[in-house]
Design a protein that fits this description.
The chain is of the alpha+beta class and 782 residues long. The chain folds into four domains: 201 residues, no CATH class; 142 residues, no CATH class; 181 residues, no CATH class; 179 residues, Barwin-like endoglucanases, CATH 2.40.40.20. Helices cover 51% and strands 18% of the residues. The protein contains 25 helices and 23 strands. The strands form three sheets. Strands 1, 2, 3, 4, 5, 6, 7, 8, 9, 10, 11 and 12 form a twelve-stranded mixed beta sheet that branches. Strand 19 and strand 20 form a beta hairpin. Helix 2 packs parallel to helix 11, helix 8 runs parallel beside helix 21 and helix 14 packs across helix 23. It starts with a helix and ends with a helix. About 1% of the residues have low confidence.
């Protein structure tokens, strides 16, 4: 009972600290609930969608001519294969257009398959049923909506070997295998009448190499006793049947899920790390408050000891005070997060290509919160150990140690700059009191720098190249396949009108590397490939490989590999390592001569260029359009808004981190400055007796916290320069980035540092308003 009495008295006496901890834990618990619940909702919704559509463990796209009876027989005899499902498809090899927006990735058209769900008109859920399609109507995958900037009722044109075909969009469906915006292939659905017409046209007019036109989507299902991962299952089936080597490409169920949720997973992971670091900030603030409170209450704690309170009971009362505050904040935060889960999941739906059905992940949230509570208990036990050293006799007699000017380091005081130099003296003389604020400022600046680095990397030439994304000034599309000589002439025109830096003309194809399927970029200009080690593929038996793929297949420069496509096999040598985000970093590249050895003929229907420094994209665009007319379509990179949704995601993440950082700065500075003000009442009275005005004392108080924030900003900036590249390289490896390059600009460093410093100064100035209530009378009281 006496513990409860002491606890209630402490909470009433320090209600400001109690409320501050409640508010900080409210933010942390709300953010944790949102992040973990959105992640669970995305995973659960996608899994349910795959279950509804009966997706196979491996989905293969294959030409009908090579899916022979012999291959079917091999699949029938495969021990680890339970069964397979075959869906006839027509291939739109040159993609689709909607108005002025084009998507040149191949599409597979078929009639509706079982389990596909129709997105409702408000894009907030699914319809109970999906109406059949009439001639001229199409259901597009939901991920195509933003990619093609289209809506229900719009007209789209699909380009196939058999001609161009126009459709009216009847609705959008959640197709789980290829439906995400970031997946290149798309599986779209048309009526049986349209399918028969396109299939007949494609069969009559195949392309030059005879590999496109009509085919099948074959879904392979593992047997119940198969313990292999989806990737190893695919490799074994390919070794036994050659189905993957003969296919246009394939995707495992695990890969499809990874690609579909890749942006939500990475954005939420970065936010989760940020929130957990903020939990550390709460511990730092609480530790400072406890430590200072013990020093201020030295006499009272001594009296309690003289009345029979043991050190352990006093420490328990302090611990319960902070744990109750954390508990109250956590409960309020969890309850506040529940109605917001649907709002955040809806942000990712257009990218992921399905509608997320929300559910709260309270169990995992509880585990994280329990971990925070457990760390808090240990931390508070360590901080409150000084209670054991309090002597009742010394405390009652007022013999506590000095807590002000507690350092041998004495900064000089200047009469000319009295307020600022006095603030510096107060900081250096009690630097232990402000170390928590320095650490907090450093952490907040570090994360603000990190989100700035993510944002600015998208516009940095060097950063994009190091991450495996070419910096592009102009996109160039042709109305038909072009030869190397024809593209060379276009490049000559670019050179003559301003200058050319890098050419990005390639054809993507899936090959088999030692039995494993891998994406291969056949580069028309291999000498322009950015290579980090070794050299570009100069000869027809050389490839470059990404670092992720090299690690996965245990390869290094100089190793020999067997590469196959259809029935062609050839030996290649790894000549270098290069960065690429294609297929999340699992890719290789070779030149056109190497592709010929595998009977692969690159289809060059477009590409992009990086111009020389100072070149005018508009001028070069006009020159190309004048010379080549309707035969060419040129788009300035700034006019291409395909990445707008991803940039919006990064900006949203920046807003969250900035707003949380500034709010935490407000609460932390308020708590620390309030304690400092309490400790310095006597000194403030002395200053007032010496003629200092309230305004000067408040300014001096705020300048002290400005000094603290500047030190924290410098520390956070130094940490950012040293660690951000490495940290983001690890965190973004899932999307294929193994060498993140943070191109810090002066503004990207100055803005977060200045924001934190300004907030520290203003918040301290606001918290110091109580100084006007302190009079000379305070000296007599003391």
């Amino acid at each position: 009972m006496d513990i409860l009495t002491l606890l209630k008295a402490n909470i009433r006496r320090r209600k400001g600290t109690f409320i501050s901890i409640v508010v900080l834990m409210f933010i942390i618990s709300m953010a944790l609930t949102l992040i973990l619940s959105v992640s669970k909702s995305c995973d659960a919704s996608l899994n349910e969608l795959h279950s509804s559509a009966h997706s196979g463990n491996v989905t293969v796209m294959i030409k009908d001519a090579v899916f022979t009876d012999d291959m079917r027989q091999k699949l029938d005899n495969e021990a680890i294969l339970d069964h397979y499902k075959v869906t006839p498809v027509a291939v739109m090899s040159n993609g689709m257009d909607c108005g002025d927006v084009s998507n040149e990735n191949s599409c597979f058209f078929s009639v509706l398959t079982e389990g596909i769900r129709l997105v409702n008109k408000s894009c907030s859920g699914y319809e109970d049923s999906i109406p059949p399609l009439s001639k001229g109507e199409i259901y597009l995958s939901y991920g195509s909506k933003n990619r093609l900037k289209c809506n229900i009722g719009d007209k789209v044109t699909a380009h196939a070997n058999g001609g161009d075909f126009d459709f009216t969009i009847k609705g959008f469906v959640a197709e789980p295998v290829f439906g995400a915006m970031q997946i290149g292939w798309k599986w779209q659905f048309i009526s049986q009448e349209d399918f028969d017409m396109i299939t007949a046209a494609n069969a009559a007019q195949n392309d030059v190499d005879g590999k496109w036109g009509t085919g099948y989507i074959v879904q392979l299902y593992k047997s119940d006793d198969c313990g292999l991962s989806d990737g190893k299952f695919r490799r074994q089936v390919n070794l036994d049947s050659d189905i993957i080597s003969n296919s246009w490409g394939s995707v495992t169920l695990d890969m499809s899920k990874h690609y579909t949720n890749i942006y939500s997973d990475n954005i939420l992971a970065i936010l989760l790390v940020f929130i957990l670091i903020l939990a550390v900030v709460v511990l730092i603030v609480a530790g400072h408050s406890i430590s200072t409170g013990i020093e201020l209450d030295y006499t009272n704690l001594g009296i309690l000891k003289s009345q029979g309170f043991s050190s352990s009971r006093i420490r328990l009362s302090i611990m319960l005070q902070y744990l109750i505050a954390e508990l109250v904040g956590s409960i309020i935060g969890v309850l506040a997060a529940l109605p917001l889960i649907g709002v955040l999941t809806g942000f990712f739906d257009p990218m992921s290509g399905y509608i997320t059905e929300t559910s709260a992940d309270l169990s995992k949230t509880l585990l994280y919160l329990l971990a925070i509570f457990a760390v808090s208990v240990v931390f508070i036990l360590i901080i409150t150990h000084k209670v054991c050293r309090i002597s009742p006799i010394r405390a009652i007699s007022g013999g506590r140690r000095e807590i002000y000017f507690d350092s041998r380091l004495k900064a000089p005081i200047s009469a000319k700059f009295l307020s600022s130099t006095l603030a510096l003296r107060q900081f250096t003389s009690a630097k232990r009191r402000y170390i928590a604020s320095v650490i907090i400022a450093a952490i907040l600046v570090f994360f603000m720098l990190m989100v700035n680095a993510l944002s600015t990397a998208a516009s940095s030439r060097k950063a994009l190249k190091m991450m495996g994304v070419g910096y592009v000034d102009l996109f160039i599309d042709f109305n038909e396949t072009k030869s190397r000589e024809e593209i060379d002439r276009v490049m000559d025109t670019v050179k003559e009108n301003g200058g050319l830096q890098t050419r990005y003309f390639s054809h993507g194809v899936y090959l088999s590397l030692d039995g494993e399927e891998i994406y291969c970029s056949i580069d028309l200009y291999p000498e322009d490939i950015y290579v980090t080690k070794g050299r570009a593929p100069k000869y027809d038996n050389e490839i470059v490989i990404t670092e992720i793929a090299a690690d996965e297949f245990d390869l290094k420069i100089g190793d020999k590999v067997d590469i196959a496509k259809y029935d062609k096999h050839s030996e290649f040598i790894v000549s270098g390592l290069y960065p690429s985000m294609s297929d999340t970093g699992m890719s290789i590249s070779m030149n056109a001569d190497g592709a010929k050895k595998l009977d692969v003929k690159p289809r060059m229907v477009g590409g992009a260029v990086e111009l020389a420094e100072g070149a005018d994209p508009a001028k070069i665009k006009a020159a190309l359009e004048k010379e080549y007319g309707d035969d060419i379509k040129v788009t300035i990179a700034d006019e291409n808004d395909e990445m707008e949704i991803y940039e919006t995601a990064i900006q949203a993440m920046r807003f969250i981190i900035y707003s949380f950082s500034l709010f935490f700065a407000l609460v932390a500075v308020t708590m620390v400055s309030t304690k400092a003000f309490t400790q310095e009442k006597t000194d403030i009275g002395i200053f007032k007796a010496q003629g200092f005005t309230t305004g000067k004392l408040r300014l001096q108080f705020a300048v002290r916290f400005l000094i603290v924030s500047v030190l924290g900003a410098l520390l956070g900036t130094a940490m950012g320069m040293l660690l951000i590249n490495k940290l983001l390289s690890v965190m973004l490896k899932g999307i294929g980035i193994t060498s993140f390059y943070a191109s810090f600009t002066p503004m990207s460093v100055i803005v977060p540092a200045a924001a934190i410093c300004l907030c520290f100064f203003l918040f301290a100035l606001f918290a110091s308003r109580k100084i006007k209530k302190v009079g000379i009378r305070q000296l007599i009281t003391e």
